[in-house]
Structures are given as structure tokens and as C-alpha cells.
Design goal:
The chain is mostly helical and 446 residues long. The chain has helices spanning 2-68, 72-82, 87-115, 123-149, 155-176, 181-207, 218-252, 255-271, 273-287, 295-329, 336-362, 366-418, 431-442. The two termini are 23 Å apart.
């Protein structure tokens, strides 16, 4: 009798999990497709050198956004998904935290822009650029996370995707009309805060989360901030793991090389879209305690399928990368394929790491993620210091791949230590894995 109950529970969990995966793949995938289209348009409009500066500047602002808001979206996402703090309390805190962030960032950008003028934008435009990216990124991340905590992968992603496509058409029309590039940059910068506001409005319309404005009490606030600050340490380390190579390439290589390298990295990030979508489902399912004994086996299946898919991508990137990238992004991206080819093994590691990190975060075991990221960062820093100056973007790509692999190896060590699987199961490709994918794609269970 107990076996039948367990089997029935597993079946229900399996069906719910697959349904959420389908929603995530379709709607989160739609958002990332529009991001890719926007990235192509920006690359075409501004070429390798200016788009390199743009992406580099945005990377700095993303780091500032991560630090200044104390990474509160992580705590908000966790306690919204786990339901350990009432939803209206979490959302009320989100509203107040966002308003405080807007005030702090605006003052900070005014001071910074007047002390360190930018060479590409006027002082006012640079202030708007920074405020829009920092505050907009926060709003988008937190409200998409709140949607995901509700296991809604549709509304927030549609809202953000619509903003992207409107921006694409506006940029193309303005370019056709001969609008100056500085004005195009201003339009692009405003899209970040527009996305965040649209996602926030969509959440309040769809979910109606606040019947009574209620801020967290002292104990709840401590829980939120403790989780957020611990996650902040991990995310800052992760940020440098994924981005510290930009600084070395920017310092030792030409502007066009920086543009090619960052674009190769962004193409690698595009390959992480599917793993990140899967991770966005794994996190709330792990956080709310839904059949934790079943989740590790799903992670193994996903990892095995990702490895097989990436083998095909690696072969395609090595053989056809240069032709594909120059045709899509333009002739100025003629060395992009070299960096991309060397990054591919590391991107495979990151794809699996996204799933494992979501699992450990949902289990409130963030320390595993942090320690693995620190090991990877040490490897990358030492390698970049020793080799990037002499060997350029090829060295940066190889070193990053090695660091990412160290990170995922550490996470797998703890994953297998906590579960009863043999390590060989990671490499044991099974027919049932393909049936799992078939069920996912066709919504069939037999």
C-alpha cells in the first residue's frame, strides 16, 4: 500500500514537473529569443568596438545592481517559493526595497557621473543609462522570480519579450531615419527600466498579491536578509567567475578583440538559456519541498541529455562558427569563432552547473555553490594573470573553460555525496532518457 502511494505521488510530481518545464521552455525561451534578436540588432548597429564598450559598461552596471540592492531578490524568491513568509509580506517588502534602491542609485549615479565623465555619453544620458540598467534589472529579476514562485512562467516572460520586440522595431526605424547613434543608445538604455516596470505591473494585475500592505516583522526581515546576503556572496563570486575575463581582455587586447570576445561569451550564454529555464523550475520545486527524493534523478537525466546535446553543438561551432558569426553579426566579428570554440567545454559545464546550483539553492545549501565558485575564481584569476597578456582571447577562453569545469566538478562531488547514485550514472546514457524528452515535448505519459 505504501509503495502504491509513493508511486502515485511520484507520478503526480513527474507530471507537474514536466508541465512546468514545458511552460518554462516555451515562454522563457520566447523571452531569450527576443533577447538574441535584440543583441544581433545592437551588434549590427554599433559594430564590434562600440558594442564591446556597451557590453562592458553594462557588465559593470550589472555588478553594481547585484551589490547595491544586497541581492534581496534571492531572499524574496526563496521565501516566496517556500511560502515560509506570507506572499503579501514578501511583495510589500519588494515594493519598499525597490523604491529605496531607486533613490540610492539615482543619487549615486549623479555623484559618479559628475566625478568620472563618460567618453561616449553626456552626463545626463550616462545617469539615465546607469539608473535604468540597475533599477530595471532589479525589477525584472525580482518580479519574474515572484511569478516563478507562483509557478507562472508565462505572464512575466511575455511582458519582457514584448518590450524587447518593440525596442527592436524602434531601433531599426530610428536607424533607417538617420537618428544619431547616441540617441539610439539612449533608447536602448531606457528599455531596461521599461522591462522592469512592465513586469511589475503585470504581476500586480495578474496575481493581485497585496490585500493589506504588510512589511515583514523583525524575525522575517532577518530571515530575508540572511538568505539574501549569503546568496549575495555567492552571486558576486559567480559574477566574477563568469566576467573577470572581460577585465583582462579589456586591459591587454584591442577594442575589437574585446567586442569579439564578449560576443562569443554572449553566444555561450545563449546556449545556457535552456539550462537556465530548467533551473528556474528546479529551484521553486526544491524550495517548496516537493518530493525531494525524486528531484535528484531528474537532475541526472537533464545532465546526461545536456552533455549529448553539447557534443553536437561543439562539432557545429568548430566546423561552421566563423561563417555563421560573420554572417549574423557582421565582418567585424571575424575572430569571434575562435574564442567561442574554446569556450564551449566551459559552457557545457555551466549548463549543468545551472541545474545543480538551483537545486542546492532550493535546499538552502548555498555554501556549496559559494565554495565551488571560489575555487573556479582562483583558477581563472591565476590563469588570466599568467596567460591573457601573451595569448589574448584564446587564453582567456581556455582558462575560463577550465575554471567552469572545476566548479561543476565540485558541485557534482556534493551532489553524489548527498544522494545514493553511483558516479557512473552521470555517463550512463539510457533509452529512458530519450523517452523522458519525448514525454516532455509531446505531453504524453505512455
Amino acid at each position: 500500500m505504501q509503495y502504491r502511494i509513493l508511486a502515485a505521488t511520484n507520478f503526480v510530481f513527474y507530471m507537474q514537473f514536466q508541465q512546468l518545464l514545458r511552460q518554462g521552455i516555451v515562454w522563457r525561451g520566447l523571452y531569450f529569443i527576443t533577447m538574441f534578436v535584440l543583441n544581433v540588432v545592437i551588434s549590427r548597429l554599433f559594430k564590434a568596438d562600440i558594442s564591446g564598450w556597451l557590453n562592458y559598461s553594462m557588465t559593470i552596471f550589472f555588478l553594481v545592481a547585484l551589490v547595491v540592492n544586497l541581492n534581496v531578490e534571492s531572499g524574496i524568491a526563496y521565501y516566496a517559493a517556500s511560502k515560509l513568509i506570507p506572499r503579501q509580506t514578501v511583495v510589500s517588502f519588494t515594493v519598499v526595497a525597490s523604491l529605496i534602491l531607486l533613490l540610492v542609485v539615482t543619487i549615486g549615479m549623479i555623484v559618479y557621473a559628475n566625478c568620472f565623465p563618460d567618453t561616449h555619453l553626456t552626463t545626463l544620458n550616462f545617469i539615465v543609462f546607469g539608473v535604468s540598467i540597475i533599477v530595471g534589472t532589479h525589477l525584472l529579476n525580482v518580479f519574474v522570480a515572484l511569478f516563478q514562485a507562483e509557478e507562472n512562467f508565462v505572464t512575466g516572460n511575455i511582458a519582457a519579450a514584448c518590450v524587447n520586440m518593440v525596442l527592436v522595431f524602434v531601433l531599426l526605424i530610428c536607424h533607417y531615419l538617420g537618428v544619431a547613434k547616441n540617441s539610439l543608445l539612449n533608447i536602448y538604455s531606457l528599455s531596461f527600466i521599461t522591462q522592469g516596470i512592465v513586469a511589475a505591473v503585470a504581476y500586480f494585475i495578474k496575481v493581485k498579491p497585496i490585500r493589506q500592505f504588510q512589511l515583514p516583522n523583525k524575525q522575517q526581515l532577518q530571515l530575508l536578509l540572511r538568505y539574501a546576503l549569503l546568496a549575495l556572496v555567492g552571486n558576486v563570486v559567480f559574477f566574477f567567475v563568469y566576467r573577470v575575463d572581460y577585465w583582462f581582455v579589456n586591459k591587454y587586447c584591442l577594442p575589437a578583440d574585446l567586442g569579439n570576445y564578449i560576443q562569443a561569451s554572449k553566444m555561450g550564454q545563449l546556449l545556457l538559456v535552456l539550462p537556465q529555464i530548467l533551473a528556474s523550475v528546479v529551484f521553486p520545486r526544491s524550495a517548496n519541498g516537493s518530493n525531494l527524493s525524486f528531484m535528484p534523478r531528474q537532475i541526472l537525466i537533464i545532465s546526461r541529455m545536456l552533455m549529448q546535446c553539447f557534443l553536437v553543438v561543439m562539432l557545429g561551432g568548430i566546423c561552421f562558427g566563423k561563417m555563421i558569426f560573420t554572417n549574423i553579426f557582421g565582418s567585424s566579428f571575424n575572430t569571434m569563432h575562435v574564442a567561442f570554440s574554446w569556450l564551449l567545454l566551459g559552457i557545457l559545464a555551466l549548463s549543468i552547473l545551472a541545474i545543480l546550483s538551483a537545486y542546492f539553492s532550493g535546499r538552502n545549501q548555498i555554501k556549496v555553490n559559494i565554495t565551488g565558485a571560489v575555487l573556479a575564481l582562483v583558477v581563472i584569476l591565476v590563469g588570466d594573470i599568467l596567460f591573457v597578456k601573451q595569448y589574448g582571447i584564446v587564453a582567456a577562453a581556455i582558462v575560463s573553460s577550465i575554471g567552469y569545469t572545476v566548479n561543476v566538478a565540485y558541485s557534482f562531488y556534493h551532489f553524489f555525496k548527498q544522494n545514493t547514485f553511483a558516479f557512473g550514472e552521470l555517463w550512463h546514457f539510457k533509452k529512458s532518457d530519450y523517452q523522458w524528452v519525448f514525454h516532455l515535448l509531446t505531453n504524453k505519459t505512455d
